[in-house]
């Protein structure tokens, strides 16, 4: 009999006996295995039946382990997809926080501009509008006076302004 080294993880190495082609199968191990019908071993069977039954049980066990491995692999892939989605969502949150911060900064700038307009520009604009109204009124008054003076006949004396 030779030995095969198996590793579940790198720190846990085991040497397992491996049957060679010319060696006799250890039937004593097969005789101790429980069967589905009950907890009694298969020791009351002959070597060939015990080996066949052991092989059938081994095949069933390997199929079950293989199915579990496939389901586990599917779960691992699903978990990886969820982790990827969580990372993507975290990045989106970070980007949105940056965007929110930038929008707050721009909003503060706009509020400052509105405040400046309300406190500085509006009074100046009101003052300019008032001056324009006074200039317009003075201009209209002057035009009326000029019209009056043109309408005076040359024989009439114009009042002297001193």
Largest sheet: 2 strands, antiparallel
Regions with pLDDT < 50 over 5+ consecutive residues?
Answer: 4-8, 16-31
H and E string: EEHEEH
- The radius of gyration over CA amounts to 52 Å
Instruction: Estimate percent helicity.
Output: 55-70%
Strand pairing plus helix content: what structural class?
A: alpha+beta
Strand content of the residues, in percent? 5-15%
Number of strands: 4
The average pLDDT is 79
Order of the strands making up the biggest sheet:
1-2
Query: Could you give the distance between the termini?
Result: 142 Å
Principal-axes geometry comes out as rod-shaped
Short description:
With 162 residues, the chain is α+β, with helices and mostly antiparallel strands. The protein has helices at 27-32, 47-151, and strands at residues 2-9, 12-18, 34-35, 38-41.
